[in-house]
TrEMBL record:
Subunit structure of this chain's protein: Homodimer.
GO CC terms, sorted: Golgi cisterna membrane
EC top class, as a word: isomerase
Record keywords: Isomerase, Membrane, NAD, Transmembrane, Transmembrane helix
Name under which the protein is recorded: UDP-glucuronate 4-epimerase
Subcellular location: Golgi apparatus, Golgi stack membrane
UniProt lineage: Eukaryota, Viridiplantae, Streptophyta, Embryophyta, Tracheophyta
Amino acid sequence: MDKSMSNRFRYHFSATKMVFWTCIFLGLIFLFFLHAPQHHSDPVPRRRILRSPDWESRVAKSSQPRSRAGGMRVLVTGAAGFVGTHVSAALRRRGDGVVGLDNFNSYYDPSLKQARRAVLERAEVFVVEGDVNDAALLRKLFELGKFTHVMHLAAQAGVRYAMKNPASYVHSNIAGLVALFEACKSADPQPAIVWASSSSVYGLNTKVPFSEKDRTDQPSSLYAATKKAGEEIAHTYNHIYGLSITGLRFFTVYGPWGRPDMAYFFFTKDMLKGKPIHVFEGPNHFTVARDFTYIDDIVKGCLGALDTAEKSTGSGGVKKGKAQLRVYNLGNTSPVPVGKLVNILEKLLKVKAKKVVMPMPANGDVLFTHANISQAQRDFGYRPTTDLQSGLKKFVKWYLDYYHSDGALKSSL
Ligand SMILES: O=C(O)[C@H]1O[C@H](OP(=O)(O)OP(=O)(O)OC[C@H]2O[C@@H](n3ccc(=O)[nH]c3=O)[C@H](O)[C@@H]2O)[C@H](O)[C@@H](O)[C@@H]1O
């Protein structure tokens, strides 16, 4: 081979190599974008939503009040969630029209959400799959359902998860809330809104029991901060558009069909499997305690708030007069140490827990909660009646039936 040929060959060879490596590089970039999550602020990538062809007529039918003259027409967001399922079923039982909305995300086992949906289907509550951030879907739902009330329970829950996925809290609890208020303000008629705030807004407040008049400007988690922000956003929409808005500060709600990310739920699961559970304690062995509130009491509080909600005053997106703006604690008024919760579970499950007592990690948790409920009592007769022992008994019965047998409870509330 002469020198020029050898050079040409070398040139040709290195050009081929360059093309080869460029293709590999571009291919890798393509694969990266193909697999990168599309919605960075979602807790999990969303599934493609396929709605049945008759979904619009099902919304119209489900929104019709059944028996009660003057029954409400309620849109329940987060209807396949723990509180949403119970509230939707209770409203339907008494004859109100109810349409559910839920995005069925996989923050926790979506099959539990689908099972709750099945329960609601049997109760004749139709649940639409969709996200509260979907403005076009909300518009359509309001058109079809002519809702008089919205029970807004769709949210990114959980205190500790906020450190893992902060964006999901902004997506659901801030952007989602604003999207919902936007839809309500433009709806005709404007509905009255009751929505889930949280006891966590009291944050580092040490004055007990927590009263609605106490300060809520020291949230200790991003979760709490988004709920507190929600309360301020509610003020704005009430002030500018005349929306009637009631925020309910729930205190650690538990019970059958509950949330698997909550301590009472995964303690039960781990204890039955013989796995260790971590029981947090505060500085100097301070007892961590919660005002655990049973789901049936919370449902009564939600219905009471809906029943006493005044109409919104705006129309065509314009305020016509002063509208109602409220916030209430819905707790049990008797805090129980987490250690005591474990003792109750040990008796009910008949197993000894492998307790690992450890200092509470700095993950946003607060040391204790304790509700003063006098305002809810005064305004809509809220009076919790279930103590932790009785409520956990019902939870354990459901849990064993749901996860350890094919029993009938699987299909009922
Ligand atoms: O009431 C509220 O505002 C909040 O109640 C719960 O939050 P939390 O009270 O922290 O409920 P859990 O996560 O079930 O924790 C209950 C107690 O168990 C403790 N815990 C939790 C996890 C663990 O591994 N060990 C442990 O001792 C926590 O510190 C807490 O005192 C819900 O998860 C929030 O969505 C809700 O807004």
